[in-house]
Amino acid sequence: MAAQDIIIRPVITEKSMSGMASKKYTFEVCKDANKIEIAKAVEELFGVKVSKVNTLHVRGHMRRQGRYEGYTPSWKKAVVTLKEDSKPIEFFEGMM
């Protein structure tokens, strides 16, 4: 699987932005990707060194639109911690 297929998009929330001070970046990733594949994809795409990867599955929530109801899609989230000597990811620099 290519690195672009593993990392789907960055997660931009207040909580994920506060983690940037300690070099933690949050991404939505492919559901069947493991931690090793995620670490290699981040290193390849952004040119940084990854210390560790934490993953979690986010469940879909029940939503209603009038009388119709359904679930939002479930997805997988990865919190990537960079090594101390690694440079920050430039993509997130303007957002702090």
Automatic annotation (TrEMBL):
UniProt keyword annotations, A-Z: Ribonucleoprotein, Ribosomal protein, RNA-binding, rRNA-binding
Keyword RNA-binding found: yes
One Pfam family hit: Ribosomal_L23
GO CC aspect terms: ribonucleoprotein complex; ribosome
UniProt-listed Gene3D superfamilies: 3.30.70.330
UniProt function note: One of the early assembly proteins it binds 23S rRNA. One of the proteins that surrounds the polypeptide exit tunnel on the outside of the ribosome. Forms the main docking site for trigger factor binding to the ribosome.
Quaternary data: Part of the 50S ribosomal subunit. Contacts protein L29, and trigger factor when it is bound to the ribosome.
Protein name in UniProt: Large ribosomal subunit protein uL23
Lineage, highest ranks first: Bacteria, Bacillati, Bacillota, Clostridia, Eubacteriales
